[in-house]
Amino acid sequence: MKCCLSVALLCAFLAVGCAHSQRTSSAVATQPDISPKTVLFAADSGQQAMDAQVKPKTQSVNDDENIDYDEDTFKEERVEIADPIEPFNRAMYLFNDKLYFWALKPVAQGYKVVVPEPARISVKNLFFNLGFPARFLSCLLQADFRGAANEFGRFGINTIWGIGGLLDPSSSKELDLQKQETDLGQTLGVYGVGHGFYIIWPIFGPSSPRDSVNIAGDYFLYPVWYIYPWYASTAVSTFEMVNSTSLRIGDYESLKEAAIDPYVAMRDAYIQYRLKKVKVRKARSLIFKAEETSAPAADAALPNK
Amino acid sequence: MKKQFAALTILILFVFSIPVYAGAPMSTVEANVKKVLDVLRDSKLKGPSAKEIKKEKLRVIYKGMFDEVEFSRRTMARNWTKFSPAQQTEFIVLFEQVLEKSYVDKILSYTDQKIEFYKENILSESQAEIQTKIVTSSNEIPMFYRVILKEGKWRVYDVVVENVSLVQNYRTQFNDILANKTPEQLLEILRKKVKEH
């Protein structure tokens, strides 16, 4: 009898209140809240705490593409770019495509056979470390001082303890200084400069007048271009290109394979990618953050990891 | 008596805990991804002959994981109404085949990558975004699953890789094609694409 009673009590107890874990509270979580998990996550490092501050505001608003498409109110998220010089771009696309399949890929494949992966990753780290001036300047111009400090620390630590940047001790769990993958094009984007139109440069690939400042900026800020004579610096940057290609053979192929029209697919992917990057940078900026949160997207404040 | 009571308690705990667990978008996606990884890492399935068996097994998983109708409709957006019901049905089938053909080999080539589930973004009562990243030896690829709740099930309607939404990417392509072609011609392009291999 006592037993039955306790079973009944247990039933009642279970039926009344299920203790939801953070993950399971989805159905009721229409109100924005910072979940315990996020706070924990944010507490890991200072810069993510900043992201978390932005998050509750951004969550409450649906992005346009989530509005029901059956209704008349349907709005498409416009992330398109003008393409007035499409014939030129298509020709350049073809040129780069052939360059990849006929030259870059075979060379990278041969290189991949000879050089083991850890060595290739080290080479990639080395070149990434050299890109410090452009990233540091971009962070400063974006008023992302935390990012700038991060980059500065990374450069110092990786240059000294990482054998000139071959190793990446800054990214280890203990230090956790995150890479700030930003550039001058994004900086202009943070300042509100639009793309203009789509342009594909030979060798450099998809770009726009705005993002072309990266190419120009690198000429002054990327140490490799200071190597004298000119053919030496060209050789070094060709090597860099082969090395980085060897680490991602197959990515371009699968993108092309999956596309109905590879040219359009590539253009869209580029624009989406850059747009999101600028949004993330804006959310990190001390000056532009407020502006961004007043017109947020669903996930503008992604941890830059 | 005590034993019975314990068994009953455990049974009740099970009965109550299962529906709560299944309601969470993240755990649904996580479970599905785990199933995929189990197939990929199955040591019994090796060699070229096992590839077809693996594909077949993966098909079963992703049929439950993805909402193919939602995927197609969102990709088509406004253009969806230009299609007749028969064309819509054919489009869903063809689009699914195109996606399968393009990605199945890529998925099968995955071996030692680690997948981390780190965040669940609630977009609305019936929509969520599960943020994961694929960690390889040389880099990390962010991969987000957008899921929608329909008939008590969370199913994927969009995949965002490196901040690029697949649905949006295809939408741009289809928009471009439909700007000067009919739905029938678009279906023809897809039919060719499926046969191509």
Characterize the structure shown.
The complex is a heterodimer of chains A (305) and B (197). In chain A, helix 6 runs antiparallel to helix 7 and helix 11 (251-258) crosses helix 12 (262-284). Chain A is globular, with a radius of gyration of 24 Å. Chain A has 305 residues and is mainly alpha-helical. The longest helix of chain A is centred in the N-terminal third of the chain and has 29 residues, at 86-114. Chain A contains 13 helices and two strands. In chain A, 58% of the residues lie in helices and 2% in strands. With 197 residues, chain B is an alpha+beta fold. Chain B is built from seven helices and five strands. In chain B, strands 1-2-3-4-5 form a five-stranded antiparallel sheet. Chain B starts with a helix and ends with a helix. At the A-B interface, helix 1, helix 2, helix 5, helix 11 and helix 12 of A face helix 1, helix 2, helix 5, strand 1 and strand 2 of B.
Concise account of the structure shown:
The complex is a heterodimer of chains A (305) and B (197). Chain A is mainly α.
